[in-house]
Amino acid sequence: MSPMRTTLRRATTVAALAAAGVLTAAGAAFAHVTVHPESYAKGATDGVLTFRVPNEEDTAATTKVQVFLPTDHPILGVLVSPQDGWTAQVTTTKLKTPVKTDDGTITDAVSQITWTGGRIRHGQYQDFNVAFGQLPENADQLTFKTLQTYSDGNVVRWIEEAQKGQDEPENPAPVLQLTAKGTAEGAGSTAAPAGTEEKPSATTTKVAATSDSTARGLGIAGLVVGVLGLAAAVFAIARGRSGASASSSGE
Q1: Which listed site, 39, 70, 89, 230, has its alpha carbon 20 to 30 Å from 248?
Q2: Cα-based torsion angle of the residue sequence 88, 91, 97, 100 in order, rounded to the nearest 10 degrees
Q3: Which of 131, 15, 1 has its CA nearest to residue 69?
Q4: Residues 85-97: pLDDT tens digits?
Q5: Long-range CB contacts (< 8 A, 24+ apart) of 170-175?
Q6: Confidence of residue 167 (pLDDT cuts 50, 70, 90)
Q7: What letter does residue 12 receive in the DSSP assignment?
Q8: Over the stretch 124-162, which tens digit does the pLDDT of each residue have?
Q9: CA distance from start to end of the chain
Q10: What single DSSP character describes residue 152?
């Protein structure tokens, strides 16, 4: 095999592997339960959090979703948006450390929301919207451990917390980053924040393949990597032919 063909084959292989790796990562990220937007400012008021739950099983539907809210840094004034086909049960917990606000001292906060009665089938996801009155000011992030129950009895526990400098765990819990006051709220949002035109309705169960901008972004990145790899191969071949021609002319 000629050196040019070898170069092309190697470059194409590297590009294909790089693109496949990025696309695989995109698929994995999409399959996770996530919270949107990905960030809010500390102490933000009157906002909406959307918990996005995709169905990963081919032969079973999601029938129950449990989201656990932190009580060490509680979210105040939680309200659940009605979802057609689903029933929400809200659990409150007495706080170990009451929170003082302009409206008085808060001693209880929502610690768990459980949705049942609906079904998320293969290839679909469901958005669950939760409004809040105020986010905590004394935390950098909020972790929402989540349990996803399937019709076959299988339970996926999205409870693992990512550690700095380590790979993402297999079943990461949804995390909301809390940024310094004055920064833009809702940075990185892929779902509808409060005040936007998109509203929760009976159509919130949607086709998964069209939903997650993060996955789309990673997919596009993978294609770009592939194109750049092929371009590098073509350039290498052209350069090699040019050198060969120059050598022939000089003989």
Answers
A1: 230
A2: 50
A3: 131
A4: 999 999 999 999 9
A5: 171/32, 172/32, 173/143, 173/144, 173/145, 173/146, 174/32, 174/33, 174/34, 174/35, 174/51, 174/67, 174/143, 174/144, 174/146, 175/35, 175/141, 175/142, 175/143, 175/144
A6: confident
A7: H
A8: 999 999 999 999 999 999 999 999 999 999 999 999 998
A9: 25
A10: T
